Amino acid sequence: MIKRNAQETLEYLAGIHPVVTVTGPRQSGKTTLCQMTFPDLSYVSLESPDHRAFAREDPRGFLRNVERGAVLDEIQRAPELTSYLQGMVDEDPSPGRFILTGSRNFSVLEAVSQSLAGRTALLELWPLSLGEVMRFESPPTGRFPVMFHGGYPTIYDRSADPSEWLGSYVTTYIERDVRQILNVGDLTAFQTFLGLCAGRCGQLLNLSALGADAGVSHNTARSWLSILEAGYITYRLPPWHGNVRKRLVKTPKLYFVDTGLLCYLLGIRRPEQLLLHPHRGAIFENWVIGEIRKRSLNRGERPLHFFYRDRKGLEVDLVVQDGTSADAIEIKSGETLSSTFFDALHRFSEIPGVPECRRILVYGGEEAQERTGVHVLPWREAASKVAAPSRSR
Predict the structure, then answer these.
(1) How would residue 392 be classed by pLDDT, with cut points 50, 70 and 90?
(2) In what order do the strands lie in the sheet with 325-332?
(3) What's the CA gap between 86 and 66, in Å, rounded?
(4) Strand order in the sheet with 98-102
(5) If we measure between CA atoms, which residue out of 288, 295, 320, 293 comes closest to residue 306?
(6) φ and ψ at 4, to 5 degrees?
(7) What angle do CA 58, 60, 64 make, to 5 degrees?
(8) Of 26, 106, 44, 28, which is closest to residue 81 (Cα–Cα)?
C-alpha cells in the first residue's frame, strides 16, 4: 500500500492528543493508514462478532486487555466503549494512546463528542487523491480514466475492474449499512433514490422533487439522504453569502465523495463514455471539488468550501475561504479555453461587497496560463494550486 497524504497529520495529532478518531467511507483506507502509522499498537476490529460481544458485554475487561494502547477499528459497532475510554485517558493522558476508526459520520461523531470531548482529535480520510493514485505502479492516465476509477484503494491494490468492484460495494453498502442505520423496507426504491441522487450531482438540492421522482415522501427523502451522508457517500456544498447584500440562493448543492462510484451509479462502464456523456461537466466539477476538499481534510483542516449563486443566475462553482480572503473557482471540463469560461469570474469580482479574491479557472486541458487576472489551471494541478497552505507544525 502506498503512503497516504494524511499520515503526517495523523502522526502530528497523535503526538498531542491521547485519542485520535479517524472517520471516512468504508474501504477508504482508514485501517491500513492507522496500522502503517502505528505498527506497535495492538489492533482490534469491532466488526469481528467475538470482539464486539466482548466490548459490549464487558467493556472494562475489554479495555483492560489493551490498556497500553490500541487501534480500535469501526468504533461505531460498540459506541459505548467511548464512555469507558474517557476514564482511562483521564488517568493516563499519554499522547497517541488510542486510535479509533469509524465509517459512520453521525454515530461516530455523536459518541466521541459526548464522551471524549477535549480528549480526541478528528481526522477525516476520503478515498485516494490524484497524487496518491499516481503512486501506484499502473495508474490511470487522462482525466476520464481518473474520474472513472475513482479513489477507493482496493481498486488499485488489486487491479480490480472498477465497475465490478463498485457494484459489489453498492450491494454491500445497501444490504449492511442501510439496514443497520435505518430500517429501509424497500431496497429497490432506495437504489432508485441513490441513482436519482447521482443524476442530480452538482445541482441545487430539492428534496421534494427528489422524493417525488423516487416515489417517496419528502421526509423519507430527507431521511435517506441523511443515510448517504452518514455513510460518506454524498455531501452538501453550502452556498456562500459573505458580506454581499444581494438576493442569494440559500439551497445547498449535492455532490458525491467519489467520482468512480458516481460514474457507476450513472451507468458509465467505460472511461471513454465520459467524452459524450450528458453529465460529463457535473462529474468533472465533482472531481475537482473533491480533490480540493481532500487536500484540506488530509491536513486535518475543516474545509470552508462554498458555491455562489444569485437570483440573477450568476454562479461560481466553488469559493474557498481563508480568513478574510477567498479563492473564486470556475470549473470547465473542456480541453480548449473559451472566452465564455471567464465570464462568471469577471462578473463575480465586480459585485459590491465581495472581498478581495483570487480568481481561478480549472479546465480539462494540460496548460497553465494567466488570462486577464485569472489563474488558469490544468485539471492535474487543481488541488495543489488552490488549497490554502497547511498549518505550521
Answers:
(1) very low
(2) 305-309, 315-322, 325-332, 357-363, 374-378, 369-371
(3) 14
(4) 42-45, 70-73, 98-102, 19-23, 120-124
(5) 320
(6) -90, 150
(7) 120
(8) 44
Could you write out the DSSP letters of every residue in 161-229? -HHHHHHHHHHHIIIIIIHHHS--S-HHHHHHHHHHHHHTTTSB--HHHHHHHHTS-HHHHHHHHHHHH
* Amino acid residing at 174: I
The string of DSSP letters for 37-88 reads H-TTSEEEETTSHHHHHHHHH-HHHHHHTTTT-EEEE-GGGSTTHHHHHHHH
In the chain, DSSP finds a helix count (H) and a strand count (E) of 18, 13
Residue pLDDT, tens place only, 232-248:
999 999 998 766 556 67
pLDDT tens readout for residues 381-390: 988 877 544 4
The one-letter amino acid at 107: S
User: pTM for the whole thing?
Assistant: 0.94
Give Cα 207 distance to the centre of its chain: 21
Q: Which three cell numbers stand for residue 317?
A: 462553482
User: Domains of the chain by range and CATH?
Assistant: 7-124 (3.40.50.300), 138-291 (1.10.10), 296-386 (3.40.1350)
Phi and psi (nearest 5°) for 215?
80, 25
- One-character DSSP codes across 256-304: ES-HHHHHHHTT--SGGGGTT-TTHHHHHHHHHHHHHHHHHHHTTPPP-
